[in-house]
Automatic annotation (TrEMBL):
<dbReference type="InterPro" id="IPR017585">
    <property type="entry name" value="SAF_FlgA"/>
</dbReference>
<feature type="signal peptide">
    <location>
        <begin position="1"/>
        <end position="18"/>
    </location>
</feature>
<feature type="domain" description="Flagella basal body P-ring formation protein FlgA SAF">
    <location>
        <begin position="113"/>
        <end position="214"/>
    </location>
</feature>
<dbReference type="GO" id="GO:0044780">
    <property type="term" value="P:bacterial-type flagellum assembly"/>
</dbReference>
<dbReference type="InterPro" id="IPR039246">
    <property type="entry name" value="Flagellar_FlgA"/>
</dbReference>
<protein>
    <recommendedName>
        <fullName>Flagella basal body P-ring formation protein FlgA SAF domain-containing protein</fullName>
    </recommendedName>
</protein>
<keyword id="KW-0732">Signal</keyword>
<dbReference type="Pfam" id="PF13144">
    <property type="entry name" value="ChapFlgA"/>
</dbReference>
């Protein structure tokens, strides 16, 4: 066969079909901004997705997919545009750096000195604590075993106010901005909202705790 004949034969040959590795690479690229350490596995591909030639693009319905999810697979046309090719059913495993207990702790015991930071799979965990979240005063909400990945449901933040504590409340509404001396009616951690009563006004307020003994007015009860 002449060189010209060989070239024409190559041009006429169908493009190679995508492999599962092509789909995985496209899917991991699609979630890289949200889950940079995600690992994707193909569960099932439609016939169109299997036959599509690379390069491919994967589109997820959710901005932060995790677990088993469906996605659309697109193939690039000769003019550079993307066209639907089929669908993929994928397993998106999410990995994060999170605090993990290195020893057993009982309910109410401090956890800050009993953890290490480790890369763990968090696909089926919710409210995993950021790596820098734990500080002095955090305690276990229940008895926990070594190896437990800490989530917001398993620990309690240090109290910013106990029942009966004095609270400095910043009240701002329209042009009015004052600081009120109040008394907390319940316990609360940083970021939580508690009821507080002000003797000077006789009113009860909802206050979001911003620091120990301090908070911002959110509503009048």
């Amino acid at each position: 066969m002449t060189r010209l004949g060989l070239l024409l034969a190559l041009l006429a040959a169908p493009a190679a079909s995508a492999t599962e590795a092509d789909v995985v690479a496209a899917a991991e690229a699609a979630v890289a901004d949200v889950w940079p350490d995600a690992e994707v596995r193909v569960v099932r591909l439609s016939g169109g997705a299997e036959a599509a030639p690379p390069p491919l693009r994967v589109r997820f319905r959710d901005a932060a997919p995790r677990g088993r999810v469906s996605a659309e697979v697109e193939a690039q046309e000769p003019d550079g545009t993307w066209a639907p090719a089929g669908w993929a059913y994928l397993e998106v495993a999410v990995f994060e750096t999170a605090p993990v207990l290195i020893t057993d702790v009982d309910r109410g015991e401090p956890v800050a000195g009993a953890v290490r930071l480790d890369r763990v799979e968090t696909t089926r965990l919710s409210a995993v604590l950021p790596a820098d979240a734990l500080g002095a005063g955090w305690t276990a909400a229940r008895s926990l075993r070594a190896g437990t990945v800490l989530t917001g449901r398993l620990v309690e933040a240090p109290a910013a106010a106990e029942t009966g504590d004095a609270l400095r409340v910043r009240y701002a509404r329209g042009a009015v901005a004052v600081t009120l001396d109040c008394e907390a009616r319940e316990r609360g951690a940083l970021g939580e909202t508690v009821r507080a009563v002000c003797a000077a006004t006789g009113a009860t307020y909802r206050v979001q705790l911003t620091a120990p003994g301090e908070g911002d007015w959110t509503a009048t009860l």
